[in-house]
Amino acid sequence: MFNYLILFDKIRTFHISTIIAYILVLVFCLPSAQAEKPANIYPYLKSLQSELFLAPKQVLEKLDLLQSELDGEDDNVMALFYLRKAQAYNLLSSWDQFSKTLKIGAQYVRQKSPEFLKIYYAIYQGLVYQRLGDYENSRKVLLQAAQRANANEDISAYVIAMQELAYTQSLTEHFETALIELQDAYTRAIQSNDDFLIATVEESYGALFSYMHNYSKASLHLEKAMSLYKKLHYESHYAEALLGYGMTQRHAKKWQLAIQSLTQYQKLVASYHSNYADFLAMYGLGMTFADMGDFDKAYPYLKKGLALNGAIDYQAELYKQLAIYYSLKQDKTRAYFNLNKAREIFKSLPELTDTSWEVETLKIEAEMLYNLAEYQTAFRLLQKYLSKYQQITQQKNYQRLYQLELSSINTRKDLEITMLRKQADLDLKQIQTQQQINQKQKLITLFMILMFFAIVGFIFWQFYINRKLRRLSNHDSLTGLYNRRYTFEKLSKLLVNLNESKGQLTVLLIDLDEFKKINDHFGHPAGDKILQLVAQVGLSILRPGDIFARVGGEEFMLILPRTSQKQGLNVAERLRSAIEKATVTDKKGHKLSITASIGTATYDKNNTTIEQLYAHADQALYQAKLAGKNTIRNWSFSEHPNP
């Protein structure tokens, strides 16, 4: 603040030229200095969103200059100011500053604060928990943020919350849940036609498939994300996706591409001066060289990464590799020191207990002991690791197990073969005196390998059967459509998220006209052909997300989310017309066709429960039958005031 009293005290003793100079300062300098402060700070802060993604460093500088002008501003301005500042720090990978700034800003969020402030503070608090390894609280906060965003019809916040929630699920190997959540986020992002939202979901898909060891699919998703970020000129987001891409190439053993991507990431984030970004670069390069077996190159990156004190679960991975490094140097004490450090970290993160990351410490110890020439103990530990690893995979679905086994079976076989060869080399000196012992040992080893493959085969078979049973429990065996039980459960879940002011849903009941005559005249196999034909016709015209089911003998049900009454009638007409035109030939060469009557009911204040929707759609179907069949009727409250 300019001190006017001091100025005029000096004017009394100064020469006239000095007075003129001060007047010029007052006229020209002070107004220009005050003009830097926006007339209305709140709208100005809201407008910084797009600029923030393009140039977070420059926006942070603007916010630093603005901070001195915030005296007397209300809580909403202060909350938004610190939110923007936290977002900038997050994009610049300044993790400590991000969490501290978020904590300060959260103090200004009140019950009456704008919804978007509550939502985004919740999302970023979820990120804080996520990076601290507190996955339970991260999931809880992110889910609440997503629900609040959905209720507020804030698609952007909803997608961001859901993709972060899915990523948190993947960190604890809840892959099936993560896939469902990401599919929801992706659907919303596509509907909004927002390249940024699509890119964020693609990036999360890349991370998820990388954790599931499907590296080719992970690479495709990350390449899409990078392409969109590049198109938008969002350099910080591009750098983060590039980091994930480099990590994926490392897991895929595409070493040169991994090193190239991670080195490029290191250059992109160099200007951030961020310990967190530097840690991720050190982590990626160190782990890549370690996976290549070049521990001399890996060592300095591993040590620098730990010195930067990054994400705690990532630190555990660095300690694992240092344990192997020291075992190669025959330093058993330091090897176990680092391995125990990793185990202490996993012990402090209960949600990572019995995950592949935690169980891998057994494999690391086996490799350490192998390097230290303690082969028998190493082999026993490897068996223990394989047993625990199999228990983990049994908890996943069939497809997940299949992917995990395919990606890891070669590694396990190579390690077993290497250990067996080493054992054979040691036994070679005693071969003349121990031929009988060696022969028994080979037979035992062969038996163990055969048992291993037998167990793997049994697990595959078991998961195949379970998957088949799961499908049979939800689907009609003749048509392949959903069955009545599953359909009504799904309808119940859809209705939970609807209310009278928001959301649309229409139900269609379809009954085949004169179906009994086909069974009587041409036989039940012909009737089955007709049912399958109707199922194929219906599936061919539906959108993703629509639910088509067989709920009775010749009765079908179609649930249309996000569909108004008018749209539902249009779908019904398309379906009726398609069924009328479709034909099928039975085994005897008879050309068969059929028509259908359809009743529709749409969610509104008179149709809020499953019972009401189904009953009203059934009444409409009855009216369609009375009207001469092969027609459509819609249930309307005005026509049925006392249903």
CATH top level label of the domain at 484-634? Alpha Beta
What is the mean predicted local confidence, pLDDT? 83
CATH superfamily of the domain at 484-634: Reverse transcriptase/Diguanylate cyclase domain
Structure class: mainly alpha
Distance between the termini: 74 Å
Beta strands, count: 7
Rg calc = 33 Å
Tell me the major beta sheet: 5 strands, mixed
CATH topology of the domain at 484-634: Alpha-Beta Plaits
**Strand arrangement, major sheet:** 2-3-1-6-7
Number of helices in the DSSP assignment: 27
Q: How does the overall form come out from the CA principal axes?
A: flat
In short:
The protein is mainly α. It has helices at 4-11, 16-34, 41-54, 56-67, 75-91, 95-106, 115-131, 135-151, 155-171, 175-192, 195-211, 215-232, 235-251, 255-268, 275-292, 295-307, 312-328, 332-348, 356-371, 375-394, 398-427, 435-474, 484-496, 515-522, 524-541, 565-581, 610-626; strands at 505-512, 547-550, 555-561, 584-585, 591-592, 596-602, 632-634. 72% of the residues lie in helices and 5% in strands.
SSE inventory with pairings:
Layout: H1 4-11, H2 16-34, H3 41-54, H4 56-67, H5 75-91, H6 95-106, H7 115-131, H8 135-151, H9 155-171, H10 175-192, H11 195-211, H12 215-232, H13 235-251, H14 255-268, H15 275-292, H16 295-307, H17 312-328, H18 332-348, H19 356-371, H20 375-394, H21 398-427, H22 435-474, H23 484-496, E1 505-512, H24 515-522, H25 524-541, E2 547-550, E3 555-561, H26 565-581, E4 584-585, E5 591-592, E6 596-602, H27 610-626, E7 632-634
Parallel strand pairs: 6-7
Antiparallel strand pairs: 1-3, 1-6, 2-3, 4-5
Helix pairs in contact: 3-4, 3-5, 4-5, 5-6, 6-7, 7-8, 7-9, 8-9, 9-10, 9-11, 10-11, 11-12, 11-13, 12-13, 13-14, 13-15, 14-15, 15-16, 15-17, 16-17, 17-18, 17-19, 18-19, 19-20, 20-21, 21-22, 24-25, 25-26
